[in-house]
Write a structure and sequence with these properties.
About 50% of the residues lie in helices and about 15% in strands. By secondary structure, it is an alpha+beta fold. The chain has three domains: about 80 residues; about 70 residues; about 130 residues, no CATH class. Strands 1-12-11-5-6-14 form a six-stranded mixed sheet, covered by helices on one side. A four-stranded mixed sheet has the order 2-3-8-13, with no helix packed on it. A hairpin with a 5-residue loop joins β2 and β3.
């Protein structure tokens, strides 16, 4: 028997078993903890804090073995802080987990408009969260340095202090923006299709959109962004079931046509997409993208009974909003 082939087979078999075990463990964990929800994030935070507490525990043992009382005192205090933070995070997880299971956290996030705002204004939310994070990092760092060293951040020279604050602030905003932007990808949808478009004499348009997804799409308090970046609010009470179509009246200034542009030379990496489409942001957090090339859309076969009533009481004109 060829030993190389034998070892290769063993490695491949072991790899397949490990991947299978990992997928099984991941499925069970996801069944218990919804990682994308607040309780899952609190559990991750509690786990990280526990690792820090255990690490400082190891430092305490090492300090005792070396007879370093100063290091032992510092490690004991740090371990106590991280251990207390772990307990707080774990208790918070235990409470929020039940609230997540009951749907309370989701209801609050949807009804308050927080989910919609984080999708619609990711940069603004990241700026606020990043600023708070930078303040926390700065405050904790200043406290630790002042307690265990003779150095103070606020004692730095003007330029050094400004540079330090700017770097911490920029890094915190960058981390917050990346986290929100990555989370937003999971809420991107392409399940809405334009099936009909009618233009009136005053250049306003009536748009018929069909829900091609397997779930309901709630357009109540939804916001639209046209291809120029202008925002509009839909004053409607429309909820589309799977396969159902609805009519929406768009003002004349609403730009529906998909726009393509070229990124400046050498700056392509800064432009994630060079195609501007219409976006619909619903209160539940989903982001729907609508593509239209300016031509009459291809008619899709559907029953007239599937079109949601679009009289003046149920569908109103989209109005500009901030």
């Amino acid at each position: 028997m060829n030993p190389i082939a034998f070892l290769t087979g063993v490695v491949r078999t072991t790899g397949r078993k490990l991947r299978s075990s990992y997928r099984l463990l991941k499925a069970k964990l996801f069944g218990f903890v919804p990682w994308r929800l607040l309780s899952g994030k609190l559990l991750v935070a509690a786990f990280v804090l526990l690792l820090f507490a255990l690490s400082w525990g190891f430092v305490i043992v090492l300090a005792i073995a070396l007879g370093n009382e100063r290091l032992e005192a510092v490690a004991t205090e740090a371990g106590t802080v991280f251990g207390g933070a772990f307990l707080v995070a774990f208790v918070a997880f235990s409470v929020v987990w039940w609230l997540d299971r009951l749907g309370v956290v989701r209801t609050v996030a949807v009804e308050s408009g927080f989910r919609q705002r984080t999708r619609l204004s990711t940069a603004l939310v990241a700026l606020v969260v990043g600023t708070v994070l930078a303040a926390l990092v700065g405050g904790v760092s200043e406290s630790l340095l002042g307690r265990y060293t003779s150095q103070r951040i606020l004692a730095l020279d003007g330029w050094y202090l400004a540079l330090t604050v700017a770097l911490v602030w920029a890094a915190s905003i960058g981390v917050a923006y990346y986290a929100f932007h990555r989370q937003n990808r999971g809420f991107l949808r392409t399940d809405l299709e334009i099936v009909s478009l009618h233009r009136y004499d005053d250049d306003s348009r009536e748009l018929v959109i069909r829900n091609e997804s397997d779930g309901y799409v709630d357009f109540r308090k939804a916001k639209l962004v046209d291809t120029t970046g202008d925002r509009y609010r839909l004053d409607v009470e429309t909820v589309l079931r799977p396969g159902e179509a609805g009519t929406f009246e768009l003002p004349a200034e609403f730009k529906l046509e998909t726009v393509e542009f070229e990124a400046p030379p050498g700056l392509g990496v800064l432009y994630g997409d060079t195609v501007k489409n219409v976006w619909i942001y619903v209160r539940t957090g989903e982001m729907f993208v609508l593509e239209w090339d300016g031509r009459e859309p291809t008619k899709t076969e559907f029953s007239e009974e599937d079109i949601v009533d679009s009289d003046a009481d149920s569908v109103e004109e989209a109005v500009p909003t901030a």
